[in-house]
Give the backbone structure.
Amino acid sequence: MNLQKSHKMAYAAVLGLEGYTRMRMPARLNELVKLRASLLNGCGYCIAMHTKALEKAGESQERMDALEGEVPSSLFDERELAALALTDAVTRLEMGGVPDDVWDEAARVFSEAELGDLVVAIATINVWNRMGIATKLDA
């Protein structure tokens, strides 16, 4: 199924969220969040897309590979670590929601506006991942 063709208004709504996050989020951080969520969700299409975007932006292979497992604190700065931890928590949404310590750390290193933008970015990539996986988009 090609949702871009069969459900144009719904697809356009998600594109609107995507455009918003691209305007509001630092590009590299946005792509790191997208790659991490896509890896957690197993969306091959999105993994390929965001890997290519990060490569084009000059991201190191070591840092991209590190997103596949437990994220090492030695490779990422505190904002990136907080964003990636929040990405994990929002993507997995365990019972009880986002743990307070994860939220508090993100709130410590991001302004309220930045934190809201980050939540929207994480939610948006999760929508893309679910659409891609459900419709079996080919990487």
